[in-house]
């Protein structure tokens, strides 16, 4: 039989007939009149080459062929109904993987508490993290479907890319413990005089601190530029370099004993946002919506 030419509505009619063993009741079950249901039974018999249901004094009885078909047809219809029903995502029992694109900052700050939360609430959920270094990359990964979600500096909301604010981050200066430039507190002149480490994913030779210093007619020397912040605290701890890092990163590195001290920057620096991003096509997907809520709740607590 060529399934491409088979009317799948006939399966629904067969299932109703097998359950009711009565043409009129079967028609009522699926919204067909008695005459329409009789015509459907005739088509079923022609297509399948079997009487399927035989009239007897005690009502319609299924043939052996109908008995063979009943279970598989019922299973197929149940599978289709389940696929078409609203997504009943249950975190505690779900087994699936999500791909989340993250900046290194987002991974550093959010992944430890996020994994702890998933381990308790959704032990069958796995994460695949994709590195992300720019806002344009977030859009590309979401557009292509390579990532279910992205966490980083927000892109401009559009018809297809949706965003949700997670947190705002400030800056802190880090230096090795006992660094002479900070012996008497934060001093702008001493800050400018020391060599600096700049973290710039784009490889820029100047950053926000440099622009703020330029407004004051000052300039610092950037001795080392890095594309990622992860190694920066360790370099600072073993040198005279000073770095200006995300405040949460600076505090956590100091807390775990990397060997750095955290100071307030001697210039006023604006904070910056971290956002959750996803494609509109996944906006109503229950599993993805649940993970978005979990990430937002974790971010609110860090």
List the helices and strands and how they pair.
Elements: H1 9-20, H2 23-30, H3 34-48, E1 53-56, E2 59-62, H4 64-84, E3 96-102, H5 104-121, E4 125-131, H6 135-144, E5 149-152, E6 161-169, E7 171-176, H7 188-193, E8 195-199, H8 208-215, E9 221-226, H9 232-237, E10 242-246, H10 247-255, E11 260-263, E12 272-279, H11 286-301
Parallel strand pairs: 3-4, 3-5, 8-9, 8-10
Antiparallel strand pairs: 1-2, 5-12, 6-12, 7-10, 7-11
Helix pairs in contact: 1-2, 1-3, 1-4, 2-3, 5-11
Describe the structure.
The chain has 302 residues and is α/β, with parallel strands linked by helices. Helix content is 43%, strand content 23%. The protein has a five-stranded mixed β-sheet, sandwiched between helices. Helix 8 (208-215) links the parallel strand 8 (195-199) and strand 9 (221-226). Helix 1 (9-20) crosses helix 2 (23-30), helix 1 packs across helix 3 (34-48) and helix 1 (9-20) crosses helix 4 (64-84). It is rod-shaped, with a radius of gyration of 32 Å. The model has no long low-confidence stretch (mean pLDDT 91).
Order of helices and strands, N to C?
A: HHHEEHEHEHEEEHEHEHEHEEH
Shape: rod-shaped
Number of helices: 11
Radius of gyration: 32 Å
Portion in helices: 40-55%
Give the strand order of the largest sheet, numbering strands 1, 2, ... along the chain: 4-3-5-12-6
Low-pLDDT windows of residues? none
The major β-sheet equals: 5 strands, mixed
Percent strand equals: 15-25%
Count of β-strands: 12
Separation, N- and C-terminal Cα atoms: 60 Å
Instruction: Indicate the mean pLDDT.
Output: 91
Q: Structural class, please?
A: alpha/beta
């Amino acid at each position: 039989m060529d399934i491409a030419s088979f009317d799948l509505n006939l399966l629904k009619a067969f299932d109703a007939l097998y359950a009711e063993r009565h043409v009129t009741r079967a028609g009522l079950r699926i919204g067909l009149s008695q005459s329409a249901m009789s015509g459907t039974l005739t088509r079923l018999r022609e297509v399948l080459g079997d009487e399927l249901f035989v009239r007897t004094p005690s009502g319609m009885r299924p043939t052996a062929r109908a008995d063979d078909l009943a279970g598989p047809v019922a299973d197929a219809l149940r599978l289709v109904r389940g696929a078409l029903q609203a997504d009943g995502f249950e975190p505690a029992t779900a087994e699936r993987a999500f791909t989340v694109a993250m900046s290194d900052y987002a991974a550093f700050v959010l992944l430890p508490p996020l994994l702890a939360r998933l381990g308790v609430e959704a032990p069958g959920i796995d994460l695949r993290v994709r590195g992300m270094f720019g806002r344009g990359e977030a859009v590309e990964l979401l557009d292509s479907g390579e990532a279910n979600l992205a966490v980083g500096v927000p892109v401009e909301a559009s018809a297809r890319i949706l965003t949700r604010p997670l947190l705002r981050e400030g800056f802190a200066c880090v230096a090795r413990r006992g660094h002479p430039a900070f012996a008497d507190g934060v001093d702008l002149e001493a800050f400018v005089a020391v060599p600096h480490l700049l973290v710039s994913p784009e490889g820029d030779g100047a950053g926000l601190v440099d622009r703020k210093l330029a407004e004051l007619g000052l300039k610092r020397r950037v001795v080392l530029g890095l594309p990622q912040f992860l190694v920066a605290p360790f370099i600072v701890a073993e040198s005279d370099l000073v770095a200006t890092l995300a405040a949460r990163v600076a505090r956590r590195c100091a807390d775990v004993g990397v060997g750095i001290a955290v100071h307030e920057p001697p210039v006023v620096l604006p904070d910056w946002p971290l956002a959750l991003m996803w494609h509109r096509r996944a906006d109503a997907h229950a599993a993805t919506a649940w993970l978005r809520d979990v990430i937002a709740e974790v971010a609110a607590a860090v």
